[in-house]
What does this fold into?
Amino acid sequence: MSDLNETTITEAVLASLRNSKTPRARQIGEALVRHLHAFIREVRPSEAEWEAGIRFLTDTGQKCDDKRQEYILLSDTLGVSTLVDSINHPSQPRVTETTVFGPFYVPPPEFSNGDDIRGNLEGTPLYICGTVRSPSGAPIADAVVDVWHSDEAGFYDVQQLDKTGGLAARGRFRTGPDGSFQLWTVKPSPYPIPTDGPVGDMLRAQGRHPYRPEHVHFMIQAPGYQKLVTHVFASGDQYLGSDAVFGVKSSLIREFVLHRDDTAPDGRTLPGEWFELRYDFGLQPA
Ligand code: BEZ
Ligand code: FE
It folds into this structure.
């Protein structure tokens, strides 16, 4: 193993992995070396470009703390999160499709069905309701439904705690005996992912916008079923075809139905505009 050059270096590094502790560690290590070397052979970076690449990865790590995970944002914006999600959750009949988790989940406060989770956020009322079922259509009672979303200006509570004074537009509900849940909140909006770090620099260099289409996040858990992490997207949104993190699936798009001076499903009559979103979720048996 000496006098290594462009032709011989890859085999030499691969050979050095033969005593890996497990077959899986060897497989992963070999694939990493093969693909990384192929990338370098294709790109043929100058030394200045190589240093810029190292600086980008260093800056990405240094942007991470307990509230900000720039590496996940990088994975999201390069489509890696969606690829990993697709490999682990292939589509199944009558099971709701999954999508990216995103960085804005925190364990939500518990609410009862029918409650309003808006906290002190202003906005147009949104009624969200739905059911949780098995693939055979049987209602799943007592499923834990976590909901979170941005406000009408496109910010999550955790990005503006000085304004919200605490958690808002997020809550935990439990389905009733018929598998149903329902809540009030305020309508979200499309929003840009954080662009004040290396991922923002990357998007600008690539001529990409940072927006995600309007959506509501759901995480649903019930004993005997796989955890479902997904969103429901608003139909008609201008960013459905160009989500910055590649999370949109057509099965997850629904109309946020506009009502005016109308009586809601829970019997309340609201003055002015409000919206209604219904989604029936299917869980995959564990
Ligand atoms: C979100 O929807 O909350 C999100 C997902 C991925 C990256 C940034 C934000
Ligand atoms: Fe989101």
Observations:
- The mean pLDDT is 96.
